Amino acid sequence: MFNKLSLVWNCGSSSLKFAIINPLSDKKYLSGNVECLKLPNSRIMWFDHLKYKKNIKYIKNISHKKAINFVFNNILKKNILLFNKIKVIAHRIVHGGNKLTSSTLINNKVINLIKSSSVFAPLHNPAHLIGIYESIKNYPNLSKKNVAVFDTSFHMTMPKKSYLYGIPYKLYKNYGIRRYGAHGISYQYIVYKTSKIFNKKKNKLNIIVCHLGGGASISSIKNGKIIDTSMGLTPSEGLLMGTRSGDIDISIIFFLYEYLSITMKDIKNLLSKQSGILGLTEKSSDFRYIEKRYYKNSKAIIALNVFCHRLSKYIGGYITLINKYLDAIVFTGGIGENATIMRKLTINKFSLFNIIIDKKKNKNIVGKSGFINKINTIPILILPTDEELIIAKEGINLIK
Length: 400
Fold this sequence. Notes:
Blueprint: E1 5-11, E2 16-22, E3 27-35, E4 43-48, E5 53-58, H1 64-76, H2 80-83, E6 86-93, E7 104-105, H3 108-116, H4 125-138, E8 146-150, H5 160-163, H6 169-175, H7 184-197, E9 207-212, E10 216-222, E11 225-229, H8 251-258, H9 264-273, H10 276-281, H11 287-292, H12 298-322, E12 328-332, H13 333-338, H14 340-347, H15 359-364, E13 370-371, E14 380-382, H16 387-399
């Protein structure tokens, strides 16, 4: 039962996840995450699915490199039965640019291309590279069986009319400036899982997926393939997010620079780390903060209303792009799965399309998966994502 296991690394900017998975049976044997990297309350948590045992280790200010080495030396190598059955190490990479368009075995050329794409994902790609370097160091026998799985790959089926910007074409042709999207691995899983739920072939599946977390995006998927997505060249475009502004008038940047004399570095920091929910509430980027205070705090009301207004505009537009029977609207991600008021405010705008939420189901489904629509209306599905499973499957498929 332990044949052909995948070790998966999902290294983020402030956290990382890891897992050992049998991608043929979808079974997880080990899973864990490291939270609050480089902070005093950083911690490593993992779960042994065979022994059904939870573990936690607090290590102050732990870095990506030290966290990965702790996992290798204190968790993986102490479970020799699993460790020796690992056949591939698969890494999530946020941005592959215009050269890395599908999952690939990692070599020096691939590493250099991931580095060059860091300009589009400066918080994420460098963290992914640490995962690659430490994996090769700790597991030299699999140095040629490390696989890169890209968030941007799933979005490569978008037509030019979706991914091109209204700027001089040579900027796309010479420098690859286009919409790349993000959360692609999550979307790939949702398509995989939703097709099973509806017992429908993936190439017949038409869904709108809202991946809502600290970073938030939405995608329109027709016949199992992406036709448009809200994030762009970088994960900054699109919906309102925890600390990111999402869509803005580009003249705001000129105004901040020319009239308020704010430096470009500070403008970048303002739009990516001080805006979104945090900017509107002036208190918190945590979505639970605004849901909890929605009926009594004016800034929480504004923040949630702006978020839902933008999300509903995208949903409405993406319904028209599918232009045929819609199988479902799917909510995933921490906010998508748990924010009941957000779902109600957003979906209430779509009764014209026979998309009607069941208030009782919506309220009772927090933290679980299932349907929240009224009977005989278009399905609204809450579905937790599993990026690690898709990464594991991509990895094992490449080394077959």
